[in-house]
Write a structure and sequence with these properties.
Layout: H1 2-38, E1 43-44, H2 45-48, H3 58-61, E2 67-74, E3 80-87, E4 90-101, E5 106-115, E6 131-140, E7 159-160, H4 165-169, E8 179-187, H5 213-253
Parallel strand pairs: 1-2, 3-7, 5-8
Antiparallel strand pairs: 2-4, 2-6, 3-4, 4-5, 6-8
């Protein structure tokens, strides 16, 4: 039974090591994809993201992480915040406001991150009035994973658990593009925060790192090597100790 448990443990550690390598490959592929998209020419968002596409369609996928511009007027009354977000170690929320384009459609703009105020509340500032030109990255609609909060299916939400574009589009009376823009800059810029108020910070482009997957994989393979080498040595020592004990017992009996 002991041998079976050790064999199972070794197999599990090997699988964990290869899983970390697969995660590394996925991360490297993502980084390469983002970098390649960033090198493409900046274009208006309505030319990159097709309005009639589904949020998970190939057409939207091909537009992700492109740098785009969007010119229009913010629909300030339809602002929502995405709670439970953090930025540089600070807890807070994302502030999202639809930007109404000239053709009547809208693109949801992640205007940036804002921390809690002195009362412990999230108080999103008003967006710039009048015509605004935003530059930023195309980002995908978010879905709930295996765990996490669930937004109500009905009613008008001002606070959301994630950037769910289909859920947002259901509560406004104008068409919304199936991808959103993460703002890096805008003209005019967002208003400066008042004294003692938290500032709205543009998130900017994603930080491209490979994480710790390689080091974790190496650790699992080291643990596997220790088990493969150490366990037979342990068995050998146990057998030697038992043989020595038997000889001592036989000598004592003689």
């Amino acid at each position: 039974m002991r041998h079976v448990l050790v064999a199972v443990l070794v197999l599990v550690m090997i699988q964990l090591g290869f899983w970390q390598l697969r995660r590394l490959d996925e991360k490297q592929a993502y980084n390469a994809r983002v970098e390649a998209r960033q090198e493409q020419a900046v274009a208006p968002v309505e030319e990159i993201v097709p309005l009639d596409a589904e949020v998970d369609s190939d057409a939207v996928d091909e537009a992700l992480y492109r740098t785009v511009t969007a010119t229009g007027t913010y629909a300030a009354d339809d602002t929502v915040v995405v709670e439970n977000r953090s930025f540089n170690g600070v807890s807070g929320a994302w502030v999202l406001t639809p930007l109404r384009l000239d053709d009547g459609t809208a693109v949801l703009v992640n205007r940036g991150f804002i921390g809690f105020d002195r009362e412990g509340d999230i108080a999103p500032p008003d967006p710039p009035a009048g015509e605004v030109t935003v530059e930023g990255l195309v980002q995908p609609s978010q879905e709930r994973g295996r765990f996490g909060a669930t937004d109500p299916e009905e009613g008008r939400l001002t606070v959301m658990a994630r950037v769910d574009l289909a859920r947002f589009a259901a509560q406004v009376d104008y068409p919304v593009l199936p991808a959103y823009v993460q703002r890096t800059s805008s003209d005019p810029e967002e208003a400066a925060a008042g004294e003692g108020e938290p500032a709205l910070v543009a998130l900017g482009p994603p930080e491209l790192t490979e994480g710790s997957h390689l080091s974790y994989a190496v650790q699992w393979f080291i643990f596997t090597t220790i088990a493969l080498v150490g366990y037979p040595l342990l068995l050998r020592k146990v057998a030697q100790d038992e043989a020595r004990a038997e000889r001592q017992a036989a000598t004592s009996a003689a």
